[in-house]
Each structure stands twice: as C-alpha cells, then as structure tokens.
Amino acid sequence: MKALHVGLVGMGTVGAGVAKILLEKNSPLLEKLDCIPVLKGIADSNPEAKNKINIPSNVLFTADARELVNHPDIQIIVELIGGLHPAKEIITLALENGKDVVTANKMLLALHGSELFQKARQHGKSISFEASVGGGIPVIAALRDGFIANRIESICGIVNGTTNYILTKMTKEQVTYSDALAEAQKLGYAEKDPTMDVEGIDASHKLAILARIGFGVDFDYNSIYHEGISTVDLSDIWYARELGYTLKLLAIAKKGENTIELRVHPTLLPHEHPLSSVHGVFNAVCITGSAVGDAMLYGRGAGQMPTASAVVADLVDVALGRAGITFAAMKTFSGCSERFPIANALQFKTCYYLRFSVVDKPGVLAKITGILGKYEISIASVIQHKAREAGNVPLVMMTHLAEEGNLQKALVEIQQLDVIKDHTKFLRVEE
Amino acid sequence: MKALHVGLVGMGTVGAGVAKILLEKNSPLLEKLDCIPVLKGIADSNPEAKNKINIPSNVLFTADARELVNHPDIQIIVELIGGLHPAKEIITLALENGKDVVTANKMLLALHGSELFQKARQHGKSISFEASVGGGIPVIAALRDGFIANRIESICGIVNGTTNYILTKMTKEQVTYSDALAEAQKLGYAEKDPTMDVEGIDASHKLAILARIGFGVDFDYNSIYHEGISTVDLSDIWYARELGYTLKLLAIAKKGENTIELRVHPTLLPHEHPLSSVHGVFNAVCITGSAVGDAMLYGRGAGQMPTASAVVADLVDVALGRAGITFAAMKTFSGCSERFPIANALQFKTCYYLRFSVVDKPGVLAKITGILGKYEISIASVIQHKAREAGNVPLVMMTHLAEEGNLQKALVEIQQLDVIKDHTKFLRVEE
Q1: Which of this chain's residues are annotated to bind NADP(+) (chains A, B) (predicted)?
Q2: Average of pLDDT values for A239-268?
Q3: pLDDT tens for each residue of A99-142
C-alpha cells in the first residue's frame, strides 16, 4: 500500500476533527494499519481557521481550494465546506484532475448525486460519503455492503439530531416547541436560522442518499415529501403518549409494488419500537431487508469527532483501494440505475392519528366516524377528554391503515360539519 | 470483475440459505452488481442435504469436502459445518490450495484464529467471518472498517439469542429458568444439549472475535471469564427490576490501562440502557470508540437468512477483491499483533448487586455494611422485604464501583456471620 496524500477543503468543526485524527502521533490508524492516509494540505477561505489546530510546517495551508485540487501530489480531496457552491465545482475539478473524493455534503449529493457519480465513473475515480448520513454510524457501508444480499424493503430513521433533541425535550420536560428550540440554539445543537433542520429539509437530503443506496435507484430529490416539526403541538405529544406512542421526526423510505414512498414527517411510533428510545442528539436507522429482517444502527449523528470518524474511515477505504472497487462494481453509481417513480402524498398508506376540536354534544362521534367509514377509514382507538374551555373538546382518534388520499377527502368533508370548531390535526403513524 | 466460483462446505440451515441466495434467478446481487459470486459446488456428508433446495445440474454435489477444496475452478470455500474438526483441516487445506475462505465458525476462530490468519497471510489469501458474530448484523465490518479511526474503548453485547430469549421470557412472563429453556427448545431456539449457549461459551467465542478485531490484539481464548444463566434466579430478576435494572447475558470487552477485561456473565443494566430493550432472539452490540463515542448495532443474531445474508456479503467482499486488501493491510491479521494481558476475575471493576439471605433481627445491616466498608465497598442502594419464611429475609444491595477481589474477600467474611443463612448471590452491573 502506497501512502496517499490528502487535501482537506474546509477547516470547520468536522474538518478540524479530521485533521486532528490524521495528524495524531499515536493515531489509531497507525496501530491498526501498516500505512495511513497522509494530510498534505488544508484549504479554508478564513485565515483564522489555521489556528484551530497545530498544523505542522510540512502541511500546506491555503485560502484557495484550487491549490489543493490542482496539486500533483494530492490523490484524495476531502470536501467539508458543505452547501452546493463552490463544493460542486471543487469536487468536479478534483474528479477531472484524477483525484478521489470524500465528502460529508448531503445537500450536494441529494441534489446532484447522479451527475457527480457519473463524473467520477467517467474519470475512473470514486466518491465516498459515509459522513453525509448519521455522523459516525456506518450506515452507508451497512446498506451498501453489509446488506448487499438483501432486497431492502424499508429504511426508517431518526437522521437529524437537532429535531430529535427538540422533540425529546418537549416530550420529557413538557416544554413548548419554541422553548425547546431556544435551548437547542443555546447549546449549539440548532443553528441561528434553524429552517434546514426543523423543516425536515436536512433529513430529506439524508433520506435521498439512503434511498439511492438501499434501493439502487435514481429519482428526483424534489419528489421527496417533507414536513418539519415547527407546528408540533405539545398536546399531541401528550395524547400520543396516552395511546402508547412517541413522536419522532422520521425519514422513511418504503418500496411498494410500483413506487417508492419517500417521506419525512413527524411520526408516532409505539413506545416499544426501537426508534422510540433514541433520545436527544442521537441518530438511528432501522433497515428491513429480505434476508436479514429488521436491523438497526444507532449512534451520534453529528458532532466533530463522530463525523470525523466516518470521514477518516472513508479515507482509509480510498487509500486501501476498496472505495474504487466498490464504486466501479455497483450499478447504483454507474449512471445506469433506473429512475423510479416516487409515490405522491395522496398515495401514502399508513395509520393516522387525528385530533378534532369539536363541540361537546351528542352525535358528534357518529357524524365523524360516519364520514371516515365512507372513505374506508376504520378507527382503532378513541380518546375524548373533558372540555378545557366551554363547549370545545379535543377528540383524538387512531385509525387503521388507510390511504392518505381518502383521508384528505374525509377531512375536507368533516371540516364542513358544524360540530367541528378548529383545524383538524393529523399525524402519521408507523407500527 | 471476474466471476469467482464458490464451493459451499456444509449444507445445514445456514448453508441452504446461502445456496438459496446465490441460486436465486432475480438475486438482489444481480440487481446491484455487474457480476456475482457463482455457486459451483456443495459438499455435505449427509446425502439427504441435497434435497433441502433445488440444486441445478451444473452445481456439483458431493459428500467429500476435499473434492471442492481441491477443485481447480473453485476460488472461494465457504465453511459452514461448524466445530473444530474437520472444519480446521478443510480451511487449512483451502488456504494451502490458494482459495479464500468465508466462515461462520466462531468456535474455530476463537480457539485457532491466530494460526489460521497466519496461514492465510502466508498464502496471500483471506479469511472472512462476518457471520460468526451477530448473524446478519455487520458488526465485524463496523469494528474493523467503519470505526477504524477510533481507539475502541469497550465492546458490550448481547450476542447469544438463545439466552436472550430465555431471559426475556423469564423477565416478561415470570417463568423459571427451566420452563423458559424448555420453551426455547420446543421452538428450536435452544439445542437439546443447551450447554454451549446457556453456559456462556458461545458468547465467549464471539467475544474473542470481537475483542481481537476491536483491540487489534491476540490473546489466549481460555483467559476469557465466562459464566452462564443456568443459575439465574427469578427473584433476582424481580429485585433488579425494582432497582431499575434489567438482567441480560452480556459479552463485555473493556480496555484498561494495562489489561483488557474479557467477560461473559449475567449482567444488570439500567432500564434506559439501549441493550435493556433488546428482546427475544435479537442481538445487539454497543461499541464505544475514541472518536465516535457510543454506537450500537442491532438485529437478528441467528437464523437461516440473517446469517446467510452475512455470509453472502463476505462472498461479495472476497469476489470484488476487497476482503484480500483488508486482510493484507490490517495488523491484527498479520501475526504481528501483540499478545495482550487479560484481566483475571479478581481484577474486574464493576458495581455489584448482592442478595444476602439473613435472619430478621436488628444490627444485621450494620454487620454486613461494616465488612463491606472495610474492603472499600460502598453501598448505593438497599432493599429489604418482609420475610417470606419465619426468620429468613432477603437483603438486596447495590454497590458503587468496587474491585472484585475485594468483594470476594468481603463475601467470605460476611458468609461467616451467624446472621447469614444461605449462599450470597452476586451479579455484576454495567451502567
């Protein structure tokens, strides 16, 4: 094994973690391998980034990423700047220059993965991206290699630590969404502008990557349905708990007969579901395969060293030559993977949690269930509590499996009943 | 990628599962890869094995494994007969004949791993063994590749489905050990002679493999401490629950300053520990690494298709050439890995659960805690219940972290007190 030289583009939190591991004198890599990837250069547009760690004099530091991407002695480019541009241009140039790429950039891969994978194939190079989903959890490798003998049936995960922290806090401490968000921001778990996390966009980027690897298909990222947690009401967490369910933001990919359901939304899970006990900033992904059955991988989904752990694992994979073999052998990276139809929201089939706000008088339940029945939606359980305000009571129901198109039609009709006093809330359920 | 031919030795439950996947017309492998490992021959000493699946005429069936091992057109031997002999001889001959080996044989690797790994290196071949631990869970790959940037601090797992089924049944249905074992045998989860499983021997074989990969060291298998579940008393499960703990058979490897603790024993875990919710025949392994922090892999630890899933993943790894690269690059397979001192039981440091049977009179608690204090063992919590029989009461204590050598000395001294009426039970605790 020859020593491969690494150029690190982006010296943010994760970049500094990667540099730390690569520069460590008694690195775990040296303990385990005869030879390790060697850090040759670091690029960051912020000159202050240089001071994050002690950079030895034989490691180049530059503000210009192109200096590394064009460097003849660098064989691997690690892209850790995130976002679409200039990350895409840097990766493209690196591949064109005959360098392998390691990246944690989920947004870029979700939106332009196919194009970049084709570019890599065209130049006989590889793109590795374990760190793009689930931080230090080796979920890409498991889906791609460990479960290769399986037809993947579903992938279902908590892949965003920020929202899981917020929901955990709301559930355990009964604080409102805004208070939990404020706390997450204070602790550095949420950004100042939390949109990407709380609206489920980050999770949908990760879902796009997982679904491509798991199902070996290509699709338009924009066909992923996503809904965040910013409208989650504390009372729904309480009622759900009473019914034996925990609320989580899940990224779900399920292969049906002719379509794939790809959806990110707040989801009720039975308390005994393994994902129900994934708390705080932890991530976990459940995978169901035709041979392996149900499996789960769990760990820290973000943070400097967990994410750096995944980046460095990819670097070793490239340095040893395994990444190149994998990339060349797998159809999903070859550009010949099929485009697969994605189900639209009206085609989803799940159980539903419904919370109606109704007037407290006889016959209300009959009217509502009558309409639901008309649309073939049957009820699994009902909770009705005493009125908090005069005349208005919450009526909570759990349905059996139903089609979302039918549910939507029923809800429109129910909304027109004079006994309905407010907007009806619904949440999807996974069993 | 050239098509590599596979010789399958041992057509038991798992062997038939592997053959099924390899022979499937619309195999998931074909969906994902350009080229797949091809089943060339099957060997089983039992001619009836032939009828387990529909073997095509171009696949050789023989009673004599040597026919496959010496076959010039076979490049990979899958050994699935288990046990030490003739598995060891078959694998050795396969390596000498220039064939790569895939095996699920945990006992053989635990006892003779070093010798076989050296033999493989000597012939430039590889041994892959994902299926030897945790069935379909890709835990070997995670420890070896996914967490390569980590110094592994501890590995802690439920790696035996039989005992986890029995303990789950005892805990949830409050049946005795013998009744739970009988049920497990009826369902095919336990063998007629269940010794290997219930005495923790199978788990210690798996622990030997995990510890070698995780810590990159070699050691004498016999230095692993193991204790089974056959003496677990239902009352200890109850008291533990009262204290907030669940009883599980754990395989634990922990790196200390100068030694490694390697131990398999019934263990109390806090209810909120992720391993506490691993029920029935499921397996799970928690890994703590220097960069990744806490991670867990969970899934079916046994059974035909989950185990076959892991075997076939190894076959793909060999066929693509990745297994050979890994095997050549990693020090732990090179024969140059250090022998590392293993802690003996007296050096273990954990918290302990103690159940004394005492006479119900004043001053008993003072006497016992006095002796414990003398040996620097302090008490975290105590439960004392009313006597079931006249004069004899169980006194349950949970200690803080203590050295097992000290505990043993204290227990010998306590046993001599006239207030102690029976053998004292102790269980180790992980937090």
Answers
A1: 9-16
A2: 95
A3: 999 999 999 999 999 999 999 999 999 999 999 999 999 999 99
CATH 3.30.70.260 fits B346-429, yes or no: yes
Average pLDDT value for residue range B420-431: 94
In this model, does residue B388 exceed pLDDT 70?
no
Measuring CA to CA, how many Å separate A408 from each of A250, A254, A373, A400, A427?
Answer: 21, 21, 13, 15, 12
pLDDT tens readout for residues B105-143 = 999 999 999 999 999 999 999 999 999 999 999 999 999
Q: What is the ipTM of this complex?
A: 0.96
Is-catalytic flag, B206? yes
Taking the domains of chain B in order of start, what are their residue ranges? 5-135+306-333, 139-300, 346-429
Report the DSSP pairing between strands A425-429 and B349-359.
unpaired
CATH superfamily assigned to domain A348-429: ACT domain (3.30.70.260)
Q: Which of A206, A248, A254, A425 is catalytic?
A: A206
pLDDT tens track for B338-385: 777 899 999 999 999 999 999 988 899 999 999 999 999 999 999 987
Q: pLDDT tens, A171-206?
A: 999 999 999 999 999 999 999 999 999 999 999 999
For the four alpha carbons of A365, A366, A370 and A373, in that order, the dihedral sign comes to positive
In whole angstroms, give the CA distance from residue B135 to residue B297. Answer: 11
Of A21, A150, A316, nearest to B309 by CB-CB distance is A150
* Structure-block tokens of residue A147: 């479960």
Residue B171 marked as a ligand binder: no
Q: What is the pLDDT of residues B130-180, one digit of tens each?
A: 999 999 999 999 999 999 999 999 999 999 999 999 999 999 999 999 999
Sign of torsion, CA B175 B177 B183 B188? positive
Binning chain A into helix, strand and coil, the percentages to the nearest 5 are: 40, 25, 35
> What is the distance in angstroms between the Cα of B283 and the nearest Cα belonging to chain A?
10
Which of chain A's residues have a Cβ under 8 Å away from the Cβ of B291? 17, 21, 136, 305-306, 308-309, 312
Q: Using one digit for the tens of pLDDT, what is the confidence trace for A131-166? A: 999 999 999 999 999 999 999 999 999 999 999 999
Q: What is the pLDDT of residues B233-291, one digit of tens each?
A: 999 999 999 999 999 999 999 998 889 999 999 999 999 999 999 999 999 999 999 99
CATH code matching the domain that covers B5-135+306-333, chosen among 3.30.300.30, 3.10.50.30, 3.40.50.720, 3.30.70.260: 3.40.50.720
If DSSP states are collapsed to H, E and C, what string results for A96-119? HCCCEEEECCHHHHHHHHHHHHHH
Which of B21, B35, B298 shows the shortest C-beta gap to A149? B21
Superfamily of domain A139-301: Dihydrodipicolinate Reductase; domain 2 (3.30.360.10)
Mutate which: A4, A25, A78, A150, vs B, most B CBs within 10 A: A150
Query: Could you tell me the CA-to-CA distances from B397 to A37, B380, B425 in Å, in that order?
Result: 51, 7, 11
Contact B330 A149 (CB under 8 A): no
Whole-number Cα distances in Å, A270 to A355, A383, B300: 18, 16, 20
Q: Nearest chain A residue to B296 by CA: give it.
A: A298
Fold of B139-300: Dihydrodipicolinate Reductase; domain 2 (3.30.360)
Which amino acid, one-letter code, is at B356? F
CB A249 within 8 A of CB A412: no
Nearest to B190 by CA among B125, B113, B280, B258: B280
Q: Is A255 on the interface with B (CB under 8 A)?
A: no
Q: Is A13 annotated as a binding residue?
A: yes
- Which residues of B are less than 8 Å from A141 in CB distance? 138, 141-142, 145-146
pLDDT given at position A390: 67
Paired residues of B154 in beta bridges:
B254, B288
CA gap B22, B14 in Å, rounded: 12
